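Can anyone check this?
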Amino acid sequence: MNIKTNNDEKCETGLAALRFVDDPEIGLNIVDLGLVYGLEFGEEDERKVACTMTLTTEFCPMGESIQSNTTEALKMAFPGYDVTVLITFEPHWSQEKITEAGRLFLGG
């Protein structure tokens, strides 16, 4: 898993929260599915977190729900923070991004 971050400790906290956000069509969390590309944090006095992520396809019917659930999970992990979730398709998602734990969960 290659997550871009500027704060390893906070990133681990964020990823732990995001492991509770599932892609409802697949049933696997967005971290192990490889949808999270980055968690960047503002300075302490700014209290900001930006999550850069993707979806399995550009036309994912659950995209808005996944984005909303991601926002809520990060707000719970970082109370009082301004949370931004950016969806990108560069690079496109592929099955190679699934973690080993995700592969085991999916039976592969």
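Reply from J.R.: I decoded it. Residues 39 and 51 are 5 Å apart (CA to CA).
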